[in-house]
Structures are given as structure tokens and as C-alpha cells.
Amino acid sequence: MSTRKQLKSLAEARRGLIVPGAFNALSARVVEDLGFQAIYVTGAGVTNMWFGMPDQGFMGLSEIADHTARIRDAVSVPLIVDADTGFGNALNVRHTVRTLERAGADCIQFEDQVAPKRCGHFSGKEVISTEEAVSKIKAAVDARRDPDLLIMARTDAAAIHGFEAAVERAQRFAEAGADILFVEAVTSAEEVRALPKRLDRPQLMNMVIGGKTPIFNATELGELGYGIVLYANAALQGAVAGMQKALTVLRDEKEVRESSGLVTPFAERQRLVGKPEWDALEKRYT
User: Is pTM beyond 0.85 here?
Assistant: First the structure.
């Protein structure tokens, strides 16, 4: 079964599949190595890691396509790719779909913010009109070369127009052909529980650590009917915390040892990047 069909089956099962985000090929390897069944190529994480900048529309199509291709080469599980607003109008969305499909995306996510967009859990967001947003989703659906490529439609309208408006907009996205729906940054447990009852397409619930949406256990979200539970930047936030701890010890104690438990052992790092396989290839060809 192709990775696109795998992802569709997993989302449609509505069992709260946990999908962590990856911000580069190594983080994707870690996610896959731990047994997760899909990976989210996070626009926020790529922006934070690549540029050292906040998630406010600084990432372009070329950057996310490059990261997608590198991650696709590094792992075998399905990839959901964050395409922000599609980098322009409906025609740009078409180009974005073609580009990310070639790069190896199994699902491409588009949102309805104005450009430059902001992290869904920042204040000051704005959204485009429902009509324009629907036209962009239609363009994304029509642009697919492979009918198994999934289109995910995200709305940030709850923060601007309220929960009911966001539900209405998500329904319009479903009618436009979106395979998976994503209502971003709902702010109450009641809203989290209500969405699977209001929308009939598979849905993603975004668990932003420190964000505006209350944290639910993934098992409970699966019981509610969510197909995907996203932790887009758990790996990034964990990596930053780990770097801060290890480097604080280095600064204060002038050394760091493997036995400290603060760093991944040297041998484990080599395993994750496939050095044994490269060693075997070197012996084969030399």
C-alpha cells in the first residue's frame, strides 16, 4: 500500500493517530524510529530551525519543498506537509501542490489566513473571505496528479469570527473536496468535543504545547472521533530544552560526558543517521 493510501486509511479510522512534527531529516528519523506512523513537516518548526525566526510567514515554497524532499528520502512513513497559505492565490496554490507532490508529500495542508500568516496560536490573525478560501481549496484538489494525494483544509476563523463561523467554513472546505479538516485554535474543551459531531470528514486536532487549545489525551481524542492528533513542535521544543540543559552544564562545569544522560550517545547518533548502512556500502563498492 502506498504511503498516501496508508495515511488516508489511518485518518479515516478516526482513532486519534498521534502525528509528531519534524523540522529536518534527523528529527524525522527520530520520530519514525520511535514507531510513530506518520510525520508532519512543520512550517513553524522549519522557520524556527532554519531561520531562527517566528512563525509569521517567513518560510517560502522552496524552503518547505526542500525540507520535504530531504525528509522523504530519510523516512518511509507518510508525510503531512504544512504549506501555510499556499504562498499566494489559487494559481499559486496549484503550483504549490504540484511542487510538494513531486517532493514526496502524502498530504498537503492549506490555511485560510491572509499573508503574511501567523502561528495559529498567536494573536492578531486575519483570514481571507470564505469564497476566496474555498476557491483555493478547489484549486488544490484539482491540481493533484495522484488522486490519492490528500488535501487538508485548515481554518483559523474561530479566533476572528467565532466557533460557529469556523465550523461553517470547514464545511464549505469539505464541499470543495478537502479530505481532512482542521479547525485551528479552539479555546474550550466543549469546542474540542463538539467538532467531530458537527463535521463528517476526518479531522485533525492540534495540540500546541503552551497554546490556546486545552490539551486532551490522544486516546480521548480518538474516542471523540478525531482521525489525527497533531503535536507539531513537541520534538522541536524538546530539542531546545535538551540543548539548553546540556549547554548549561558545559558552560558551568566546562565538560559534558555521555554518562551525564544529557546527550545522545555517540553510537546512537551514528545509528540514527545510518552510518552502519553507509559502512556496508563502502565495503561493497571499494
Answer: yes
Strands 228-231 and 17-22: parallel
Copy the grid coordinates of residue 57: 510567514
What distance in Å separates the CA atoms of residue 220 and residue 174, rounded to the nearest whole number? 24
Q: List the domain boundaries for the chain.
A: 3-233, 240-285
pLDDT in tens, 88-122: 999 999 999 999 999 999 999 999 999 888 888 98
pLDDT digit string, tens, across residues 42-62 = 999 999 999 999 999 899 999
Cα dihedral 178/180/185/186 (nearest 10): 100
3-233 in CATH: which number? 3.20.20.60
